[in-house]
UniProtKB/TrEMBL annotation, chain A:
Keywords: ATP-binding, Cell membrane, Membrane, Nucleotide-binding, Repeat, Sugar transport, Translocase, Transport. This is Rhamnose ABC transporter ATP-binding protein. The keyword Membrane applies. It comes from Paracoccus tibetensis. One of its GO terms (molecular function) is ATP binding. GO terms for cellular component: plasma membrane. InterPro entries: AAA+_ATPase, ABC_carbohydrate_import_ATPase, ABC_transporter-like_ATP-bd, ABC_transporter-like_CS, P-loop_NTPase. Residues 10-246, 258-500 form the ABC transporter domain. CDD domains: ABC_Carb_Monos_I, ABC_Carb_Monos_II. Pfam families: ABC_tran. It comes from the Bacteria. The keyword Iron does not apply. It is found in: Cell membrane. Gene3D superfamilies: P-loop containing nucleotide triphosphate hydrolases.
From TrEMBL, chain B:
The lineage of its organism: Bacteria, Pseudomonadati, Pseudomonadota, Alphaproteobacteria, Rhodobacterales. It comes from the Bacteria. GO terms for molecular function: transmembrane transporter activity. Keywords: Cell inner membrane, Cell membrane, Membrane, Transmembrane, Transmembrane helix, Transport. It is found in: Cell membrane. The chain crosses the membrane at residues 47-71, 83-107, 113-133, 154-178, 208-230, 242-275, 287-307. Part of the ABC transporter complex LsrABCD involved in autoinducer 2 (AI-2) import. Probably responsible for the translocation of the substrate across the membrane. This is Autoinducer 2 import system permease protein LsrC. It comes from Paracoccus tibetensis.
TrEMBL record, chain C:
Coiled coil: none annotated. It is a multi-pass membrane protein. InterPro entries: ABC_transp_permease. The chain crosses the membrane at residues 28-48, 68-90, 97-117, 123-144, 149-167, 173-194, 225-247, 253-272, 279-298, 304-325. This is Autoinducer 2 import system permease protein LsrD. GO terms for molecular function: transmembrane transporter activity. Part of the ABC transporter complex LsrABCD involved in autoinducer 2 (AI-2) import. Probably responsible for the translocation of the substrate across the membrane. It is found in: Cell membrane. The lineage of its organism: Bacteria, Pseudomonadati, Pseudomonadota, Alphaproteobacteria, Rhodobacterales. Signal peptide: none annotated. The complex is composed of two ATP-binding proteins (LsrA), two transmembrane proteins (LsrC and LsrD) and a solute-binding protein (LsrB). GO terms for cellular component: plasma membrane.
Length: 505, 323, 329, 306
């Protein structure tokens, strides 16, 4: 499409960044060109977010050079990067609940009056303008805490655009957005491109990358592996560069014999979150739950796990009525849940790996309430090895593991309880393609052994590739159930969006 | 409707109700003159609560404010004894309070020691320093100069200067919190410290600033306290830090940081101040005071915390319509 | 050589527990304790006297009993500032029981029961209603002591039965006081509970990440409630000892105890943010505090100067290693 | 080796006790072979005082003379001191009899009780309302004096005691309590504060309320601290015994008891140097001297002394 650009706006050379015990970046290079989207690809922990933080002045590199228009610069703080025209939508939320939308957008660089006070009127007006430009109908005066998750994300995008930037960085910007908003984001990227801005786009979704990127750069284990134009490459090629080997099967679903019903949910309802949820889960089955982000799937799953209390409805496990009011009751009943939010809900950071694994199994590894460390190590080793965990020792703090490996520890923790039903909520969200295949493979194996599996996912290929049956949710209600030939992308999306809306569009 | 939902409004109503109850037993309590007296009496609590509020907003706590107050007050009294004019003493104690606050702030900022540990330590150190300065001796009214004692009592437009200082501090801090970048930074740092870094706001520096402000206010209050009660000794205001924290909590300042308003802190302080002043007047045995203020704190936290409960995500359309 | 297809073996540990212990906070505290002991021995001829050391143990035993339970509470990410007030209320309840003619066993039961009730009240507010413990216990601190004032006013309970004096004034063997024995038993019980049982493990899990603990099938609120009960109970035990030692009850009893207890716990290396710390550290910290205050007391240094030393120690032992680390890097 | 006598104050830093220490040093100089250890807690708590006593016991001082923060709570510790052969007496604020050999009252309690009400009544020829502002609710001596005062109220039929409040010997609390008294009793004629902290705070509160001349503050105070208020008229008169004499006498008694030159038994007479001698009553208590009244006529003479 475009000719090879002449000079990069921003280029990095030989950047090294070490954290205690980890070399996050090891002499990487990166070039960003005006009017082009560069996709940065790499496994979890490859150092993508770290380079973003170096570029935005949050981290100082140990070595290496940042060059703006060919001249070396340094960003000693977030403000200085902003002044130089570098702005970013970060992977983590960077917003403040108690502040207004306008304040969130302008915090750190608010317009001032003559007296040095914040000029609230100017700030609101400019915030409204930016929000309008990205098609967000959010009031600048609204308190952030009153907004939903998608609106928050739009505020984060508006915040990045509030800086008069030449370089815009987006670190997995679509992770929390729905279809419609993703489409709008793509349009925004096009607009920015037309304005001649250089864009760095980080994502694990290949369809997305192929759709909007002009160039690619791949990192592996904190090192630069290669770069080039999107036009001359293929998905297989990029995957090979990323993981250092080819991944042939991302969805290794093996046929399993579907057995008797294990879990029967009838009429589960909650005053504000979900209504009339009814379904049956069988042994050996992988039941996919699809829906747009915010459809309420996690809420339903958490109610099965005793976190949210349903106001109505009944739960039977192998025919017996069970009341699930606490997570302990759910675990007793054989239902376990691998949460979506790994950092906050999955891993007990600060405890070593083996203690994470044995946490729900302590009654089994201890005697009369007294710990038996040998038993714990044995149990932890058994299950972590089955998942091919990569760790220096079982005594290592789980916080030091990469996201994918943390996920393996969380899964191992639950398998060690020998559950009847395992619920995996977005099990591969934010996980690189290699680990993703491993998790899928394992899921398939579990089902093969007769375990009943529920998989919540927002990715259609994953849902279709792994499930025996798919239930779709929309706005807190069931919106359809599909098996066999009916399991098509069109059917799922139509149910998830709502037919009428589809027709209106 | 939305007005009624705000914590400040609930608190204001509670204060009015409290005054009404007191007035029913003792009408003289709500005469303007007496209310002015209560306000004057509560001024130290208001001033310190303002400082504590900024510290709590940044996810910290300052247990050393009362000791800071006592030390600065003692230094003010000693300076007065040496014949230093009030015009010098006043800025000096404010700077000194700020410096003592800065010590807390630096330990929190540069060494990352939790604020509760730091201020637990400096609390005893500051108070102990008073003893080292004076060998425990008291400085009594007759040893203090008249101008020194007169300033806080001087009545201007019906209110003593002491109360005016509190009013001015409330107005200034209210403006600063709402309209200065640093004021907004307090909320950012307490609400989401991680994100504050991304927005170019230094968490440590903001916490430091909050400690310095709290210290400066404590220093100023130190002088006012000593001048008002006309006596300085080691134990001045001992335990007052808990009253200050209680005022903030009653005023709806979230102890986890990031939420709360100047108005809330002021009303929390007034609420406690009114109770303290009213009990002896209404004729309730002073032995009831502690239990009553304890219950008030508990009720306030329950109302504030339960009222602030996360309503959930409200996915269902009809549920959204209802709220 | 193993075959290449065998799964990779992850070692249990890379550093031995002994090597870790050597570098731990506890060994630092031990060095500090020994140093202070030697300094005291040199500074005062009266220090190395078994009776004096035995008397000196009263400087910390009551605080330390509570500190053990408080340590567990702080490890779990909570705090209880009402312990001093619980002592006051428990002591008042004991006084009432005594004035109604109760004998020593019943008086003690009333003390422990009141402690438990107060703990249950705190626990219900924190674990049941989900209120932040620091402010809840600032509130109950006024409430509990306030009730004592309502009951006692300016009066005092005196005239406890002679047998009641055993707890705070009695000796078990030679110079070994009853309080020292209770302290030792409490240290062993809480050490075992925190470090050797699954309950203790769960306490650490909650302190590190309460949400994830809940998502691991742990009844987080129940554990929190139990921890408040334990703290209340130990405050009750301390109330029995202190009341017995003073032989009387005033509502102002044990004022400021909470800060001393928290100081011991923090000095003992328990992170105030929760998730880490040991009972051994708390034991050593209590002994260090006892040695400092007694040593300075022998030199007739006023209490407030001692508290400067304790305050400086509190900040210093945390600040100095961090400062050295900062200066080195 | 000199005899070591520990003079234990309710709290360090209070002018009254500092003055007592002067007297103790005076006695030590007179006696020759005596070393005074002046000490005390830094706040007026029994627990703090017990820690101080423990370290004194450990140092094996020869005698302890203590002004107690709590009548009963110190008893077990002081008993232990006596078991270890230390002479224990209390002075100013007493300890229950089983915790000491004798107690030296600054004056006799009935006399003080009568004095404080008389001071108020003398300036109220037509009678009126008075209120008491005490120290802590646990202060032994204040409680005794107030009790004695109540006993003689029959002699002052026109005087009504309308309230008793506690300032805890804290300046600010005493100030607020005094304010509260004036609020809740608009016709109040006098505040009796039998404590040196309370009387100053009350006088200050009266001055600030603009009620000088209307409300008379009286009670027990130190001339140095009260001089200004006597001159301003906030206080017509007040009383106190000489704390220097009290420290002196306590030291003398402790010395003689420790030397076994005297025994503490009912009826015994102990010499107190320049102050003469005291005689123990059936409770083992003795009174040093009569309280002395200060007013505008003599305040200047004493305000520079204590
Ligand atoms: N503050 C930190 N302290 C220690 N290690 C860190 C820190 N930040 C990142 N790391 C480590 O640096 C490496 C690179 O992390 P980074 O977040 O850049 O990965 P990423 O490529 O963005 O991964 P993902 O795709 O999961 O977002 C990881 O091993 C990570 O654990
Ligand atoms: N407005 C919000 N406020 C706070 N947390 C939210 C909000 N919206 C979503 N979350 C949390 O963010 C995570 C992502 O939610 P997600 O969008 O997946 O919603 P969900 O209801 O789980 O729907 P689904 O799983 O069907 O997409 C969840 O853990 C959810 O609890
Ligand atoms: Mg990343
Ligand atoms: Mg979800």
């Amino acid at each position: 499409m475009q000719a090879e650009p002449t000079a990069p706006v921003l280029s990095l050379r030989g950047i090294v960044k070490t954290f205690p015990g980890v070399k996050a970046l090891d002499g990487v290079r990166l070039d960003l060109f005006p009017g082009q989207v560069t996709a940065l690809i790499g496994e979890n922990g490859a150092g993508k977010s770290t380079i973003v933080k170096v570029l935005t002045g949050i981290y100082q590199p140990d070595e290496g050079q940042i060059m703006l228009d060919g001249r070396p610069v340094s960003f000693p703080g977030a403000q200085s990067a902003q002044k130089a025209g570098v702005t970013a939508i970060h992977q983590e939320t960077v917003l403040f609940d108690e502040l207004t939308v306008a304040e969130n957008i302008f915090i750190g660089h608010a317009p001032r009056t003559r007296w040095g006070l914040i000029d609230r009127r100017a700030m609101r007006a400019r915030a409204a303008e930016i929000l309008r430009s990205i098609g967000a109908s959010i009031s600048p005066a609204a308190r952030l805490r009153d907004l939903g998750i998608a609106s928050r994300h739009l505020v984060a995008i508006a915040r990045a655009l509030s800086v008069d930037a030449r370089v815009v960085i987006m670190d997995e910007p679509t992770a929390a957005l729905s279809h419609k908003e993703i489409a709008e984001l793509y349009e925004l990227v096009e607009t920015l491109k037309r304005q001649g801005k250089a864009i760095l786009f980080i994502s694990h979704k290949f369809d997305e990358i192929f759709r909007i990127a002009d160039r690619w750069t791949v990192f592996r284990d904190g090192a630069f592996v290669g770069e080039g134009a999107m036009a001359g490459t293929s998905e297989a090629e990029l995957v090979r560069l990323m993981v250092g080997r080819s991944v042939d099967q991302i969805y290794p679903k093996r046929p399993a014999t579907i057995g008797a019903p294990v879990l029967t949910i009838a009429g589960y309802s909650h005053p504000t979150e979900f209504e009339d949820i009814t379904f049956t889960l069988h042994a050996g089955e992988i039941l996919g739950f699809y829906g747009l982000v915010g459809a309420g799937r996690s809420e339903v799953m958490q109610s099965l796990f005793g976190i949210t209390r349903p106001s109505k409805g009944a739960c039977r496990i192998e025919g017996q009525v069970r009341v699930l009011r606490t997570t302990a009751q759910a675990v007793d009943a054989g239902i376990v849940y691998v949460p979506e939010d790994r950092g906050a809900q999955g891993a007990v950071k600060g405890l070593p790996i083996f203690q994470n694994v044995t946490l729900p199994s302590l009654p089994r590894t201890s005697r009369a309430g007294f710990l038996r460390l040998a038993e714990e190590f044995k149990l932890a080793r058994e299950y972590t090895q089955r998942l091919d965990l990569r760790a220096a020792s079982l005594d290592q703090n789980i916080a030091l593991l990469s996201g994918g490996n943390q996920q393996k520890v969380v899964i191992a923790k639950w398998l060690a309880t020998k559950p009847r039903v395992i619920i995996l909520d977005e099990p591969t969200k934010g996980i690189d393609i290699g680990s993703k295949a491993a998790v899928h493979d394992f899921m398939s194996e579990l089902a093969g052994q007769g375990l009943a599996v529920i998989m919540v996912s927002s990715e259609i290929p994953e849902v279709l590739g792994m499930s025996d049956r798919v239930i779709v949710m929309r706005e807190g209600r069931l919106a359809g159930e599909f098996t066999g030939a009916a399991m098509t992308p069109e059917n799922l999306v139509r149910a998830a969006v709502g037919i009428s809306q589809q027709e209106a569009a | 409707m939305t007005i009624l939902k705000s914590r400040e409004a609930i608190l204001a109503l509670a204060i009015l109700a409290l005054l009404a109850v007191i007035a029913s037993r003792f009408p003289a309590f709500v005469t303007p003159g007496n209310l002015a007296r209560v306000l004057t009496d509560t001024s130290p609590l208001i001033l310190l609560a303002l400082g504590q509020m900024t510290v709590i907003l940044t996810k910290c706590i300052d247990l050393s404010v009362a000791a800071n107050l006592a030390l600065c007050g003692m230094v003010a009294a000693l300076m007065d004894g040496m014949g230093v004019p009030l015009a010098v003493i006043l800025p000096a104690v404010i700077v000194m309070g700020a410096a003592l606050g800065a010590v807390n702030g630096l330990l929190v900022w540069k060494l990352g020691i939790p604020s509760i540990v730091v201020t637990l330590g400096t609390m005893t150190i500051y108070r102990g320093t008073i003893f080292l300065l004076t060998n425990g001796a008291w400085i009594n009214a007759h040893q203090l100069s008249d101008p020194f004692k007169a300033l806080p009592r001087m009545v201007v437009l019906g209110l003593p200067i002491m109360a005016w200082i509190a009013v001015a501090a409330v107005a200034l801090l209210g403006l600063a919190v709402a309209r200065l970048p640093l004021g907004r930074a307090l909320y950012a740092v307490g609400g989401n410290p991680h994100a504050a870094g991304y927005a170019g706001i230094s968490v440590g520096r903001t916490q430091f600033a909050a400690f310095v402000l709290a210290g400066a206010l404590a220093g100023l209050t130190g002088y006012l306290w000593i001048a008002r009660y006309a006596v300085a000794y080691v134990d001045i205001a001992r335990g007052f830090e808990l009253d200050v924290v209680a005022a903030c909590v009653i005023g709806g300042i979230a102890i986890a940081g990031g939420a709360g308003t100047v108005g809330g802190a002021v009303m929390g302080a007034l609420f406690l101040g009114i109770i303290k002043n009213a009990l002896p007047v209404v004729g309730i045995s002073p032995f009831w005071q502690m239990a009553i203020s304890g219950s008030a704190i508990l009720i306030a936290i329950a109302v504030n915390t339960l009222g602030r409960r996360d309503p959930g995500r409200i996915i269902l359309k009809q549920a959204e319509a209802r709220t | 050589m193993t075959t290449t297809t065998a799964p990779r073996q992850i070692p249990n540990r890379l550093t031995s527990p002994a090597a870790r212990a050597l570098k731990s906070w506890e060994s630092l505290l031990l060095v500090v304790a020994v140093a202070i002991f030697l300094m005291n021995a040199m500074a005062s001829p009266y220090f190395l006297d078994p009776w004096n050391l035995s008397d000196a143990s009263f400087n910390f035993t009551e605080e330390a009993m509570i500190a053990f339970a408080m340590a567990m509470l702080i490890v779990a990410g909570e705090i209880d500032l009402s312990v001093g007030a619980i002592i006051a209320l428990a002591s008042t309840a004991m006084g009432m029981a005594m004035s109604l003619g109760a004998g020593t066993p019943l008086i003690v039961l009333v003390g422990l029961g009141t402690g438990l009730l107060c703990g249950a009240f705190n626990g219900a507010l924190v674990a049941g209603l989900g209120l932040p413990s620091i402010v809840v216990t600032i509130g109950t601190m006024s409430l509990f002591r306030g009730i004592s004032y309502i009951v006692l006013g300016d009066a005092a309970f005196t005239g406890y039965p002679a047998s009641f004096a055993w707890f705070g004034q009695g000796y078990v063997f030679w110079v070994i006081t009853v309080e020292l024995v209770i302290f030792t038993i409490a240290a062993l019980v809480f050490g075992t509970l925190l470090h050797r049982t699954s309950f203790g493990r769960i306490v650490y899990a909650i302190g590190n990440n309460a949400t994830a603990a809940r998502f691991s099938g742990i009844r987080v609120d129940r554990i929190r409630f139990i921890l408040f009960l334990l703290t209340g109970l130990m405050s009750g035990v301390a109330a029995v000892c202190l009341t017995s030692r003073l032989g009387s009850t005033r509502p102002s009893i044990a004022t400021g105890f909470e800060l001393e207890v928290v100081t011991i716990v923090v000095l003992g290396g328990v992170s105030i943010l929760g998730g880490s710390g040991t009972i051994l550290g708390v034991v050593l910290a209590a002994i260090v505090m006892g040695l400092v205050t007694f040593g300075l007391g022998l030199l007739n240094v006023p209490g407030i100067v001692m508290s400067i030393v304790v305050g400086a120690l509190l900040i210093g032992v945390i600040a100095v290693p961090r400062l050295i680390f900062k200066l080195r890097t | 080796e000199p005899m070591r006598i520990a003079l234990v104050a309710k709290a360090l830093g209070i002018g009254f006790f500092e003055a007592a220490n002067k007297g103790a040093e005076e006695a030590a100089a007179e006696l020759g072979d005596v070393e005074i250890i002046y000490t005390g807690p830094t706040d007026t708590t029994a627990e703090g005082q017990i820690e101080v006593l423990n370290s004194l016991i450990a140092q094996r001082v020869d005698a302890i003379a203590v002004s107690a923060n709590d009548t009963d709570a110190l008893v077990p510790t002081l008993k232990r001191a006596m078991e270890r052969g230390i002479t224990v007496i209390s002075w100013d604020s007493g300890v229950a009899p089983e915790g000491r050999e004798m107690h030296l009252n600054p004056s006799s309690a009935p006399l003080i009780g009568n004095t404080i009400i008389k001071l108020a009544a003398d300036h109220l020829p037509d009678g009126g309302q008075v209120a008491v502002l005490s120290a802590t609710s646990t202060s032994t001596n204040q409680n005794v004096w107030i009790e004695e005062m109540q006993k003689v109220m029959g002699d002052y039929p026109n005087i009504e005691v309308v309230a008793t409040v506690y300032g805890d010997d804290l300046a600010d609390k005493s100030y607020r309590e005094a304010q509260g008294l004036m609020q809740s009793h608009p016709d109040l004629d006098a505040i009796i504060a039998p404590t040196s902290v309370g009387i100053v705070a009350a006088a200050q509160a009266v001055t600030d309320a603009g009620k000088v001349g209307e409300v008379n503050v009286t009670g027990l105070g130190l001339p140095s601290e009260m001089a200004g208020h006597v001159k301003s008229g906030a206080s017509q008169s007040f009383a106190i015994w000489n704390p220097i004499d009290l420290g002196y006498s306590a030291t003398m008694i402790a010395y003689h008891l420790a030397k076994d030159e005297a025994t503490a038994e009912p009826g015994a007479t102990i010499s107190i140097g320049r102050m003469g001698e005291v005689t123990l009553d059936e409770n083992g208590e003795a009174a040093m001297a009569d309280p002395f009244t200060y007013d505008a006529s003599n305040i200047d003479e004493f305000s520079s002394i204590f």
